[in-house]
């Protein structure tokens, strides 16, 4: 099956790839969203990365642009966040409660694309996302962070900025995704990453 889809793996005790969404055993809400959006079959990166991610294991996935990498890391991430207590956005400063996850992207455009895909699932699941990128008002982003969120999607430089200015703490963050990490390093963000 892996040969049919050109999937190469390294490591021990790797779970078998998904053959279909139906055998994935996701929560019904996630399966319903996949159906509603119209994703027919998992792509090769999704077939292998999702079962690994669902085991909360580290993974490095390499695939072409447009191959479905974002969904490959989002489904395990959202499945995990569903099991966590909601961030209380009614406290005086909810920013000290979250986020549970940070997704780093090299550019504002990619961060916004990830936000769009995340919101397709996150909004119906009640999972809040805040994008923290340059070129947009830091104060507005800080205001949204203080309201609380479960996921922060950020570029490295702006993430460092909001951390240094105490708009955000990462005390509860236990899930980190680095989308296009090689590109972030090539762009000079190695220190920030």
List the keywords:
RNA-helicase_DEAD-box_CS; globular; helicase; 193 residues; Rossmann fold; 39% helix; Helicase_ATP-bd; alpha/beta; four-stranded parallel sheet; 2 domains; RNA helicase activity; 7 helices
Structural write-up:
By secondary structure, the protein is of the alpha/beta class. The chain folds into two domains: 1-83, P-loop containing nucleotide triphosphate hydrolases (Rossmann fold, 3-Layer(aba) Sandwich); 89-193, Rossmann fold (3-Layer(aba) Sandwich), CATH 3.40.50.300. It is built from seven helices and four strands. The chain has helices at residues 28-37, 44-54, 69-81, 108-125, 138-146, 156-164, 181-186, and strands at residues 101-104, 129-132, 151-154, 175-178. It has a four-stranded parallel β-sheet, sandwiched between helices. Helix 5 (138-146) links the parallel strand 2 and strand 3 (151-154). Helix 2 packs parallel to helix 3. The protein starts with 27 loop residues before the first helix and ends in a 7-residue tail after the last helix. The relative contact order is 0.14. The model has no long low-confidence stretch (mean pLDDT 90). One of its GO terms (biological process) is regulation of gene expression. Residues 50-193 form the Helicase ATP-binding domain. Residues 19-47 form the DEAD-box RNA helicase Q domain. This is RNA helicase.
